[in-house]
# Entry
Amino acid sequence: MDVAALTLLALALPFVAALVAPLLTRVLGHNAAWVLALFPAAIVLHFTRFWPEIEKGEVVTGGYAWIPSFNVSFSWLIDGLSLTFVLLIAGIGTLIVLYSGGYLKGHPQQGRFFSFILMFMGSMLGIVVSDSFLMLFVFWELTSITSFLLIGFDHSREAARRAALQALVVTGGGGLFLLAGLLIIWNVSGVTQLSLLSAFGPEMRESPFYLAALLLVLGGAFTKSAQFPFHFWLPNAMEAPTPVSAYLHSATMVKAGVYLLMRLNPVFGGTPEWQILLPLFGGATLVIGAVLACRQTDLKLMLAYTTMASLGLLVMLTGLGVPHAIEAATVYLVAHSLFKGALFMVAGIIDHETGTRDVTRLGGLRSAMPLTFVIALTAAFSMGGLVPFFGFIAKEEIYYALSGFDRRTMVFAALTIFGNALMFAVAFAVALRPFIGPHVDTPKAAHEAPVLLWLGPALLAAKGLSAALLSGLTHELVSTPMASAISGAPRAVTMSVVPHIGLPLAMSVATAVIGVVFYLKLDRLRAFIATVLADIGWGPDRGFDQFIRGLVRFSVALTRRLQSGRLEVYMTATFVLVAFVLLIVPLSYGEFPRAPYFAADVPLHELAIMAIAVIGLVAVMVAADRLTAIVSLGIQGFAVAVIFLLYGAPDLAFTQFMIETLSVVVLALVMTRLRLSPSDHRPLAQKIPDLAIALACGLGFGLMLLKVTGVPFDATLTDFFNLYSKTIAHGANVVNVIIVDFRGTDTLGEIAVVMVTGLAILSLVRLRAGSLRRIADNDPDAEERA
Amino acid sequence: MTSVIFRAVAPFLTSLMVLFSIFVLLRGHNEPGGGFIGGLIAVSALAIYGIACGVETVRRAIYIHPMAISGAGLFAATIAGLISIAARVPFMTGLWIYPSVLGVEIPLSTVTLFDCGVYLVVVGAISSIALSLEERGGE
# Structure
């Protein structure tokens, strides 16, 4: 097979694995993880074959035409940026699958869990390799949906359901912003592929729609990457099982927004708007996330808020626009995925083995869980940015970029030192505090984790060390190609673990010193932050609830106003609108028909039939009871059918006959269910406006018909069908051939409508007035009363 | 309905009408007729039978729930469209075969199948509405 086919296969592989996962788990139990982990491992292997090209700074594109008529393709773009992401997603994914095998061992729905997480992996891979906009959007929303399934995995708990729904609303809604943004980009540039877009950077930046497109794209990226003030869904998403938190909410999905910004940097970047908005939101997210992390006592929540802070740091660096900022973002992104994934899994192990993840109720675990302790410390050293771990290189690179002396850079440098120091404190609060000190009794007697659990974090932590020690290789294969892809020009990353005396090192030391101080005073810091937050009282999380409640209340009020439930109102509204369109529109354009032309030689039988139709109508109006009115309406219908027949449309006439018959039958049947009150009981005050509306509608239709028949008849279609009906479709009845052959797809749609309408009417008929219940869930007032 | 004559005639009338409806359906390709008209005729037949002999009788006579008939019709119509995939032509392309049965060549096509689907959808949907209305009216 060629490379393109293999790549397509690799992209489809997670979904295949998701399909077989439940079955495999039923057979093998939790050991299915060993087999399922082979799938992402195979993806890693496949994508490493692109390294030679990527290393040379080349871009690999490929794909298949999907809908050629709309210029939509299923195509991928593999450069330094996407390759790094692919390897992170599939590589960490392999370890996460193993970890889930141990973490959810014996869970009745473990197969389903594997299935969800593999589907997520496939969607995430799709995002980072997508070349076409549509594909990017589809996979973007797919990650939102799979994330919804994973957060709500423990669906019997209300908190999990709420968190899942919240994440879906925020990230899925952000996806719609992204779609709108992509549409604007498409309109401005005329291309639908990211690989072609890079040539349109100047056009894009100078376009009057630049700001609109930027804001929409940021709306997508900021919601996905949990930037303040859209961050609240991320901590709530910790309701998910820990493998999900480690994978989606630290290493991969939340980085999709950062990925998007990095991907669009060559096209969108460099403008004042970009350099204001990104650092502003990123910096705010960094500080707020780091401060809120110190407030928490739950290990996962502490990590979740530091993730938010790290994402803020990444967004800030992407938009900063100072030399080396992109390189710093690149290295930090990789380092963060490694250490945060490992730390989350450690938090999961502690939770799994002790039964709690409240940091104040843990202590002295070092003797019971020595291996976990080592893994945790290794990851924390990287997170704290200490020698000789990859986090150190990242931090040096960041401070190198921020060591300018203009006011703007200094402000952001101060923010970063503050945020990093807080994260340093949290890292050791998570990785050190539960293990040292006197032994504390936990709900479960602690003991070392099984191999499935520790293997993933151990490999990630080891990777954090080896990537730093072999920094030359890491930079050559990962950092340099990725930084070049993001900046759109060749860049080289050279930072190594050997400390160089200089301003960056001084900033690193300052961070560590402040971090140690924060760590030692963490309890007092936590209490202080808690007091401040309690004083503020309101947060975006509560704001989300208020927003949703307001939305529901608004729609209820609107629906009550628009949907009165009275048939007269609907009928009046419909016909007033019809009359308005038919009369006012021609009036405003002066398009009324000329005086009608009356043929002098109308045969007597035609006149008679028309007279019958008119008599039928008069009979309807003077009918004493409703049944008579219905039957009289049938008279008019039959008369029209005869006219069709006379003018050579037997099929139409035939159908009209049947329809008239059946409508009389059905209406009569309906009438037997209603009170056949002898006559119309409307007061005169209502009859007059009704009459006016009816007259206006009739006049409008009449005028429109006159106008239409005034236009010379275009016989193109008639000729076409007459000519080809017999020769192509083997049928002499043109009408029928059109229905079932030439326009068969239309008919298919129509009969589907007939059937659905039938179902709807059937259920309406069956509804008894007494069995109508209010749907309590959709009524906000009911909730408040309760 | 209490008229004895009507009740006596109704089954024959209904059978004839259903037969006629199938005739109209099948001849539709070349003469006036087709699935939609045929379906409407069949519905009228069932409605007459229902008015004469009661809804329960009709339901027993057609054996299958009308909505299921409708669903089967939609399914058949969709299949008729999808067959073209096997022949690697666009969706809904009409395909014809001419098998010879007892020396008579019978033209069969996906179009015919499609028309039968239309017939069944119309029969099922409208008769289920009519029947349920009659049912409730009788209570």
Residues 774-786 of chain A have pLDDT under 50 and may be disordered. The beta strands of chain A are 60-67, 72-78. The interface with chain B takes residues 650-651, 654-655, 658-659, 661-662, 665-666, 669-670, 672-673, 729-733, 735-737, 739-741, 744-745, 747-748, 751-752, 754-755, 757-759, 761-762, 765-766 of chain A (CB under 8 Å). The longest helix of chain A spans residues 158-189.
